[in-house]
Amino acid sequence: CVDYVRSNMDQDDVCPFLDYVLTMGEEYEDCPAKTLIRANSQGVLSSKSFQSCLTHTVSYILDHVTNVHEVSVVEAVHAWGEQQVSERSAGVEESAALREAMMSLFPKLRFLALTATEFIEGPNSWGVLKAEEALSILSNIIKEGSMPIPFGFSNIRVSRMKVRRPDTFW
């Protein structure tokens, strides 16, 4: 079964496969999805199935994406969050529902690896951050250590583009 999956899985299959595997608690170290995520992170993030996958699948993918600019990662998670909101949040203020959908993923998003412009035009404009969170993050993008990083946010400043190559596994 594993050999079949490994030889036939493509970027559109990663999310449904992980939804099943992670829900059933069957994750294994030599997961073909992990290899595909590392080899084609942008393809997985932009696949149609990414926007409809489960939160723990997004979290797993964020743990393994590489060789992609952080702005692409953040935008993919935002699109995923919007899809979650459109499916579940009738009658709730959209920005509050979007924040709720995305909040568990904030620790895995490297906002500090964005440029000030990317941050202002992206996460800051989406209404998912509190004013004090946005100010602290933007201040730290501009000048490291200028303000405390808000609790629950990543302090990693290095883009995933610069961290790993697809052939580097750790």
Automatic annotation (TrEMBL):
GO cellular component: cytosol
GO annotation, biological process: neurogenesis
Domain of life, per lineage: Eukaryota
Protein name listed in UniProt: Uncharacterized protein
